[in-house]
Write a structure and sequence with these properties.
The protein is built from four helices and eight strands, in the order ββααβββαβαββ. It has 185 residues and is α+β, with helices and mostly antiparallel strands. Strands 1-2-3-4-5-6-8-7 form an eight-stranded mixed sheet, with helices on both faces. β3 and β4 form a beta hairpin. The longest helix is centred in the middle third of the chain and has 15 residues. It is globular. The protein starts with 11 loop residues before the first strand and ends with a strand.
Length: 185
């Protein structure tokens, strides 16, 4: 079952990161990583062609309060995002009774391969299980996105199924993989 998680008043700290609500002052940082070709496309959306496009999406993040900004302490800037969304598992009779959220994430290409996303995802999982009372998290990746697959596996998710995802923004279908992590009761 889907539950509402409002990220606007949540702050999660790790050794290198702070996960917090987006702010209007994050616009420059957001555009910096979201405008790089290949970053958004790995998540099903086109890279931002203008700062105005980033501004509109940032407004949505702020209004909907379901996406964390990933703030890098040492760099002093936002380097990615991590959202808590309605999960595919909500409509699956095997998992429909669970309180579950889908994790979706994007990280600046400059910070790939440093273990930052497993750090962020792991912190959100811990917070979700202990503070929000969630029963499970789901996550997914496009079949060709081996970086996301490694993050998902490092964080302990188990593979459930392959499916197809149609990105209306990219007007393209992707083969994707779906995973779940169920809290130990």
């Amino acid at each position: 079952m889907d539950i509402r998680v409002d990220t606007s008043n949540i702050e999660i700290k790790t050794d290198r990161l702070i996960l917090r609500a987006f702010r209007e002052s994050d616009l420059g940082d957001f555009f910096e990583y979201a405008s790089v070709p290949g970053v958004g496309e790995m998540a099903g959306w086109p890279h931002h062609e203008s700062i105005e496009a980033s501004k509109q999406i940032l407004r949505t993040f702020i209004e909907e309060n379901e996406v964390f900004a990933i703030y890098h302490k040492e760099e002093g800037k936002v380097i990615g995002s991590l959202g808590l969304h309605k999960s595919w598992a909500n409509d699956d009779e095997t998992y429909g009774h669970l309180k579950v959220k889908e994790i979706g994430y994007v990280l600046s290409k400059s910070f790939w391969g440093l273990g930052l996303m497993p750090e962020a995802v792991g912190a959100v999982i811990g917070y979700g299980f202990t503070e929000l009372g969630l029963d499970a998290f789901t996550c997914g990746h496009f079949a060709e996105n081996s970086q996301s697959r490694r993050v998902i596996e490092k964080c302990g998710f188990g593979f459930v199924k392959a499916s197809e995802f149609y990105s209306s923004q990219l007007q393209h279908s992707f083969e994707d993989r779906k995973y779940i992590l169920i809290r130990n009761f």
